[in-house]
Design brief:
- The structure is a single chain.
- The protein is mainly alpha-helical.
- It has one domain.
- It is built from nine helices and two strands.
- The chain has helices at residues 18-33, 43-65, 75-97, 109-120, 123-130, 142-173, 189-205, 208-233, 239-244, and strands spanning 41-42, 106-107.
- Strands 1-2 form a two-stranded antiparallel sheet.
- Helix 2 (43-65) packs parallel to helix 5 (123-130), helix 3 (75-97) packs antiparallel against helix 7 and helix 7 (189-205) runs antiparallel to helix 8.
Length: 254
Amino acid sequence: MPTTTMDGRSHAARVAPAWALGLRRFNEWMMFDWLGGPRPWKLAWVINFQKCGTFPVLALMMWHYSATTPAATSPAAWTYLALHGSYGLVWLLKDMAFPDPNWQRRATIASGLYVFAGLVLYWSFGWLIISGTIIPHYPLPEPVWFALCTSLCILGCAIMIAADAQKYFTLRIQRGLITDGVHRYVRHPNYLGEMMVYGSFALVVWHWWPWLVLGWIWATIFATNMVMKEASLSRYVGWTEYRRHSWWVVPLVL
């Protein structure tokens, strides 16, 4: 017969759904253990290399295509460079100040290349605009649209950094639920911030491809991690009350 926690919840309630357990095992294997062999790098090194490379890669794209299409130096291209390129540098600063322990594990060569290849898909967003492959037609005038995208990106960065910093420094002092600060109304504010940031990139591109990539990542990785995290947090005293008075990701929606 299962025992119960101090707040009356059954230990059985902490078991994550089968689909989340299966996806977590698959994701962990692909990101860290694929094909086995030597583990020459921490996954954080692979991620940081791609994040830091975003600004120069996009800038080189603009230089390369500037001789063949005006789209390479259009306001949309410059806006995209500023948003996505700066975000990569923000990520590096965040990782230097309060690194995520999940990315400090060493990965096999194949896993590192797999993760890098997945991250390179993000560069394809900017390529669509810079190369002139698409010419976006926004529902609002360009200056207004770019202002909205920029605001969404900045706010998303702030939420992500605040959430990760609060979690990192709080858990160094005391383990348990974090129910105040940016976690007060949203249980996964770090994921919310990331989704706002990448959503702003997709809105600048205004094409179905970024949303397809993001939908796949959010459904298979973000959602899995959030479900697994909630299964783990449910063992703490006060979880039931916290869950009742907070939202999963978006306030008043989820």
